[in-house]
Structure formats: C-alpha cells, structure tokens
C-alpha cells in the first residue's frame, strides 16, 4: 500500500522537499503505526522544509514535528488499533520520519492520548506551537503569577505560540499586552484576548539593562534583544518563559533584572518534555482554550501546500496556525 509523504532529501542534487508516494517499508522503526489525519506547519517545520537550518539530520526523512491521528496497529502495551493519539517532538521530523504524511510509525512511549473534548483537527490547530504556549503559561502559573499580579507580555503575538498564549492567558483572566510587528492586526489580537497591542519595534533594538516595570510575566517566542528588553521591563520577582528564537538565538541582556529585581527566566523545551508534563499540558489545553478563538486562528492547506507554507512561516507571512490536511 502506498501513501503520500513530504520527503526531505539531500544528496548531490541538493536539498529538496517533495511530496512522494512511499510504502510501509519506508517507515522507520517503531511499535505503533498511525493513520495521520492532520499535521501542521510550525516554525521548525519551516526550517526543515526549506533547509534554512539543519533541523533534519538524517536523509531521506519525512518532515513534520507533530501529528494527530488514529492507531492502526500497535505492539505497545498502552495503545491499540482505533486509539486517537497526538505526537509532538521527540526528534520526530528531525531524526525520525514525521507527521507530514498519511502514515507514521513511532515509539508508543512518545504518544499522548487525544484529550477528551478535542478532535484531531483541533489538536493540530493547537500543534506544537500551542502546546508550547501552554508549557509557557504553566511555567508562569507555577511561579505564582496570578491575574492580579500584573500584566503579561506576549511577544511574536501573531505567530502560533504567541496567538495561542494570548487566547489561553485571557481566558484564565490575565491582562495581556501583545507585541507584534503586524500592528495592522491589532483588532484580531484584541478579539483573541489582548488588552493592549504594542509595536515590536519598542522591544527589538538594543535596550537598557533595566527599564520601567511594565509587566509581571512574559511569554517570549522571539529571543534576542526582544527577550533582553522583556526581562528589563519585568516587575520585581516576576518571571519570563522563553521558548523561541524568531528574532535570534542570541540573548544580549544584563544580569541587572536578575540580581536587582529577582527575575526568574524559565527555559521552555517542548521536544523532550517528560510525558507527565505533556499530558498535563494537553489536558489543560482541552480545558482552558476557547475553541471558537482557536478556530479563528486556523488556516488549512493540503499536503502539497505544506512546501510553500514552510517558506511563508519563516517570512512571517502566516498568522496564527496552519493545519495540514495530509489526506487532501
Ligand atoms: P511563527 O512563525 O508562527 O511565529 C513567530 C512570530 O515571531 C511571528 O509571527 C512574528 O510575530 C514574530 N517574529 C518573526 N520574526 C521576528 C523578528 N525578526 N523580530 C521579532 N519578532 C519576529 O512561529 P511559532 O509560533 O511556531 O514559533 C515561534 C518560535 O518558538 C520559533 O522560534 C520556534 O522555533 C520556537 N518554538 C520553540 C519550541 C520549544 O520547544 N522551545 C516549540 C515551538 C516553537 P509578529 O508578526 O506578531 O511580530
């Protein structure tokens, strides 16, 4: 039986992404085979599809760092045919063939049960970006930040992590300041739950070690000067959850916010996050995310459309979340 997959190849002919028919013999080792319903385009998928960063480290490899679908066969004790599952990370789409395909084979230990209340399309509307946003929100809450602690800054607001973070935080009662380069989308960000929208130019240039205390917490998917300025503007004993590098991987900051204001900087990794944390994050997403707002963030493309979408996400042209219907 053949199935379609977005294959990344690198050889004498160069680096390329093509939708190709594969067979089960092309699937990697694993104890669970899944019929994929949906995958997504995350920023990392954009890097993998275009080859702009060395995300894919084994060739040929099916792209796609996440998927949701139905177990077709399993020799893993936790899973049986018919189970609905979600996968994020674990090197899938990097060193192990991934979710931008009609079929995938993975280790059962990597899978999370689709939470009650979400279908597979909604799970991928959330995707790795939304699950990471939830990990960031959980880090701020575990730090002790409550809605009355003060505002929460969300950077990269029109992106996948940022937009889901805004929807989550506003539903939880926090007042959100959304930072964006696309201020023309301010109305959409306010509809999502932002109380205030600022131009990302306020944060993206080199700044002072300490700035006026403007927010109690931050969800940052941008890195670089934006992260440094976000730290500099955080209130006494506040917290910053850093998960991304859309502006850059550098962190040109100062120790001043840490030693003078007791700032805590949490690093958020979704790829190797332990299973209990993933299960908690997915359960919280099913409970704390307004599904109508989620729907307003979603565009859908067929598998072949994922190639152009990979370049578009790196160019900052995608708003919200892009779901890939691998069977279209
Ligand atoms: P998106 O491309 O959807 O969003 C990124 C957003 O960042 C853009 O929409 C844009 O928002 C803003 N942005 C882009 N370029 C710049 C720039 N040069 N300067 C300032 N802001 C910029 O990506 P995702 O939301 O999927 O991912 C965001 C980041 O988080 C990526 O770096 C990704 O690798 C990382 N990530 C990390 C994870 C982890 O496990 N740590 C998991 C998931 C994502 P706007 O237009 O509103 O300004």
From TrEMBL:
Enzyme class: oxidoreductase
One GO molecular-function entry: acryloyl-CoA reductase (NADPH) activity
Limits of the Enoyl reductase (ER) domain: 10-324
Record carries keyword Flavoprotein: no
Keywords: Oxidoreductase
The enzyme's E.C. designation: 1.3.1.84
InterPro entries reported for this sequence: Acrylyl-CoA_reductase_AcuI (IPR014188), ADH-like_C (IPR013149), ADH-like_N (IPR013154), ER (IPR020843), GroES-like_sf (IPR011032), NAD(P)-bd_dom_sf (IPR036291), Zn-ADH-like_protein (IPR051397)
Pfam family, one: ADH_zinc_N
Protein name: Acrylyl-CoA reductase AcuI
Organism listed in the record: uncultured bacterium pBIO2155
Lineage of the organism: Bacteria, environmental samples
């Amino acid at each position: 039986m053949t199935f379609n997959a977005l294959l990344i190849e690198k050889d004498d002919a160069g680096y390329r992404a093509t939708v190709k028919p594969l067979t089960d013999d092309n699937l990697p080792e694993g104890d669970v085979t899944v019929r994929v319903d949906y995958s997504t385009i995350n920023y990392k998928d954009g890097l993998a599809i275009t080859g702009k960063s060395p995300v894919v480290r084994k060739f040929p490899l099916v792209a796609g760092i996440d998927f949701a679908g139905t177990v077709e066969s399993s020799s893993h004790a936790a899973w049986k045919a018919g189970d609905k599952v979600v996968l994020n990370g674990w090197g899938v789409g990097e060193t192990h063939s991934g979710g931008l395909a009609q079929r995938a084979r993975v280790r059962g230990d990597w899978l999370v049960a689709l939470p009650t209340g979400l279908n597979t399309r909604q799970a991928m509307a959330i995707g790795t970006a939304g699950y990471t946003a939830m990990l960031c929100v959980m880090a701020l809450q575990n730090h002790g930040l409550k809605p009355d602690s003060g505002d929460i800054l969300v950077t990269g607001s029109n992106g996948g992590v940022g937009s889901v973070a805004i929807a989550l935080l506003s539903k939880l009662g926090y007042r959100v300041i959304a930072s964006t380069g696309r201020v023309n989308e301010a109305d959409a960000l306010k509809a999502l739950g932002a109380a205030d929208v600022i131009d990302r130019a306020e944060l993206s240039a080199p700044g002072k070690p300490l700035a006026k205390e403007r927010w109690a917490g931050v969800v940052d998917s941008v890195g670089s000067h934006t992260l440094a300025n976000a730290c500099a503007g955080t209130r006494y004993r506040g917290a910053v959850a850093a998960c991304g590098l859309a502006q850059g991987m550098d962190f040109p900051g100062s120790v001043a916010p840490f030693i003078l204001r007791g700032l805590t900087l949490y690093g958020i990794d979704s790829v190797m996050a332990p299973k209990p944390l993933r299960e908690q994050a997915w359960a919280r997403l099913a409970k704390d995310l307004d599904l109508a707002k989620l729907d307003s963030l979603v565009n859908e493309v067929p598998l072949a459309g994922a190639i152009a979408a990979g370049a578009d996400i790196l160019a900052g042209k995608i708003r919200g979340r892009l779901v890939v219907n691998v069977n279209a």
